[in-house]
Design brief:
By secondary structure, the protein is an alpha/beta fold. Helices cover 44% and strands 16% of the residues.
Length: 427
């Protein structure tokens, strides 16, 4: 990180601007501390003097119903496994709402809270917030995903349920006193679709914590005896374009007759088994490794060993407007990137990435091979990405924005609304 920004953020937190405040964060998508964004926010708010509690789902990796981590009260509830159907989503959301409400009352009795900090998906946590608004509690909406666009990307239609998602999104923004957006595209949605006043929408990007992401010596085992390693880190789901990446791998191995390139795909998700089967059917079992979820030590090894990192997210309205954490993590490790050309992906990576033709796995393969051919270009692009994260996109740059959002919520003196300076008017 830049020394100036480091000192600014450190001084801000040392002043304890949220001393005496109590915050309840509710997140359904992932447990903490696995959800890096939510955990960074919770740690920052705690460092700023607030008492922070979190309600999140319970998983096999995080089975404890309640624990205190770094002074943060974490309450976890059961959640059905990801079924992937509309009925499955309804069961999941209904179960989550029940437990979120029950545990919110438990947190209120044990620790108290002044504000519910609700993180989507889904856009239903406002229903829990509405109950506590009766008791004078505030609601801050943390806008992680654009669910109408997600639904359209997943199911390929705008129907009754798509309209319900738009209504839920609108009601969420209407219930919130303040919202925080992960990028400028989400800020525009909050203002234009959500009807929020621009002064109440703060951009807080999901910047990587450079104190956590540590480059380690490369481990040749991930190369599987081959010269080059192409790395991917992320969710194994139907929207992530892994099928396109596998087609790119097949093109490189079978059509280009390259036997010197290994692909290592890190992450879990509902499509993992299906993708493994697809990879085997394409004759890629020796060239593509699916690791599932890995501990940080192994993940850092994969990233440190990779020659090129990839983001095969399809070009659609959702991905065009979404900031992908994997891009920033690749950049933090100084890795050149290949991705399809999406607006927020290009904003994040700039010159650290090559941009393939939309949803074209053959051009994607060509871009990978072009980088593997030119080592000096890989080094230059990697350093550009690392420097961009250090100077602009790491989490330390977002701390003042998060604190400013809370100061606005509590009608305190706003320390520094840096997210609003120099931003274009909403599109």
């Amino acid at each position: 990180m830049s020394s100036t920004q480091d000192l600014q953020s450190e001084q801000l937190l040392l002043n304890k601007p949220l001393s005496g405040r109590k915050i309840l964060i509710i997140v359904e998508n992932l447990p903490v501390p696995f959800d890096r964004r939510v955990w960074q926010e919770a740690q920052t708010l705690t460092a700023a003097g607030a008492v922070v509690s979190i309600i999140c789902p319970r998983t096999k990796l995080h089975p404890e119903r309640m624990e205190v981590i770094d002074g943060i009260n974490v309450y976890r509830h059961p959640l059905p496994e990801d079924i992937g159907s509309l009925v499955g989503y309804l069961i999941e959301y209904g179960t989550a709402l029940f437990w979120q409400t029950v545990l919110a009352f438990k947190v209120w009795r044990r620790h108290g809270f002044d504000v519910i900090h609700g993180c989507n998906p889904p856009d239903l946590i406002f229903l829990v917030a509405l109950i506590f608004k009766i008791f004078g509690k505030k609601f801050l909406f943390d806008h992680h995903d654009i669910n109408p666009e997600f639904y359209e990307a997943k199911f390929g239609r705008r129907d009754f349920f798509w309209n319900l998602l738009r209504i839920a999104e609108r009601l969420t923004f209407k219930t919130a006193t303040v919202s925080i957006a992960t990028n400028n595209s989400f800020r525009s949605i909050a203002i234009e679709r959500g009807g929020m006043h621009p002064d109440k929408v703060f951009v807080v990007r999901s910047g990587p914590d450079l104190r956590r992401l540590k480059e380690v010596p490369p481990n040749p085992k991930w190369r599987n005896g081959r010269k080059f390693l192409v790395g991917y880190v992320g969710v194994m789901g139907p929207q992530e374009g892994i099928d396109l990446l596998l087609e790119s791998a097949r093109t490189i191995v079978s059509d280009q007759h390259r036997t010197d390139v290994q692909f290592c795909l890190v992450g879990g998700g509902p499509s993992l088994d299906k993708l493994r089967t697809q990879s085997d059917a394409m004759g890629l079992s020796e060239y593509v490794t699916f690791t599932g979820r890995l501990p940080d030590s192994d993940l850092f090894e994969v990233l440190s060993t990779s020659d090129v990192c990839v983001n095969p997210d399809r070009v659609n309205e959702m991905n065009d407007k979404s900031t992908m954490n994997k891009i920033l993590e690749y950049m933090a490790f100084g890795k050149p990137i290949v991705q399809f050309d999406v607006q927020e992906g290009r904003y994040s990576a700039e010159g650290a990435s090559l941009y393939a033709t939309a949803n074209d796995p053959y051009d994607f393969a060509d871009k990978i091979l072009d980088l593997l051919k030119h080592r000096e270009q890989r080094i230059i692009m990697g350093e550009m990405g690392r420097e961009r994260v250090r100077m602009k996109l790491s989490w330390e740059h977002e701390i003042p924005n998060l604190i400013a959002a809370y100061q606005s919520l509590f009608k305190m003196h706003v320390y520094n609304q840096v997210n609003l300076e120099g931003l274009p008017e909403p599109r």
